[in-house]
Amino acid sequence: MNNYISKKIYRFFESRNILKIKFLIHKLFKEKDIGSINLDFTDKPSRIKIIKEIIQIKNYKSYLEIGCFSNELFDQINCERKVGVDPVSGGTIRATSDDFFKKNIEKFDCVFIDGLHRYYQVKKDILNSINSLNEGGIILLHDCLPNNVYEQAVPRCQYKWNGDVWKAIVELRTYKNLDIYTCYADHGIGVVFVRPNRNQLNLNKDNFLKLSFKDYYENYKEYMNLISYSKLLELVKAI
Ligand SMILES: C[S@@+](CC[C@H](N)C(=O)[O-])C[C@H]1O[C@@H](n2cnc3c(N)ncnc32)[C@H](O)[C@@H]1O
Residue 87, preceding bond cis, omega within 30 degrees? Predict the structure, then answer.
């Protein structure tokens, strides 16, 4: 399908009227609204500040961004080598993350995953990024902390949306060989270190997609391994 047609289809399904219908369908037939966990990101650092600071502290030389949109973040990053992957707009490579990783042989110091916000895709993006990460590098992800059931509903049913990125974090938190945190900033910044897990989540599930928002609502601090920005900087300095 050419770019023009895929942009039109994308815009149709994301248009406000269609979202209103999806919102109603969700409200009537899907998981019930159990309230908000009330995370307030207003006084917390932005993804731009966080990523710039990490790159500066570690003197990282290469940066990969998956999902760039209007380059709001990508253009702010100072790094010798920058690659941005997006099938629709922004960045430097017009492709889906799957197509990019199929061909990619380059390794990066810092990867920021902010493409398709669906559990199965985010999990793939993390696992593919691990193979494209230099030793001592870091993987960061956007939108890991939804506040209410609608912000994480799939399919998307409102403009403000994190998707179910959180489910990929919860699943990978059960792995022995990945050390994963979520920083309380900018809608939740996931942090992945490729090293033995220091706080492995003990959760025996055969399908993490089936986790409900209620599961998250009741356990998000433990499931996501929530940390402050100062703790994140401490962990980064210690790599
Ligand atoms: C939330 S925006 C990215 C915002 C940007 N990272 C920033 O911080 O300003 C999500 C982007 O992901 C892109 N996207 C959607 N599916 C993707 C995929 N499979 N692979 C890579 N990017 C994808 C969309 O085209 C969109 O531009």
Answer: no
CA–centroid distance, residue 152 to ligand 1 (Å)? 16
What separation in angstroms does the CA of 145 have from each of 4, 95, 99, 158, 185? 32, 27, 27, 16, 9
Res 6 pLDDT > 80: no
Question: Does residue 72's CB lie within 6 angstroms of at least one atom of ligand 1?
Answer: yes
Q: Cα dist. 185→43, 49, 190, 226, 230 in Å?
A: 9, 10, 10, 10, 11
Beta carbon of 87 within 6 Å of any ligand 1 atom: yes
Give the chain's domain count. 1
- pTM here is 0.93
For residue 126, list its beta bridge partners: none
Residues near 24 by Cβ (< 8 Å), separated by ≥ 6?
A: none
Structure tokens given for 71: 């380059």
Ligand 1 nearest-atom number relative to CA 69: 27
CATH, residue 90: 3.40.50.150
Residue of 70 and 158 predicted with greater confidence: 70
What domain range includes position 17?
Answer: 3-237
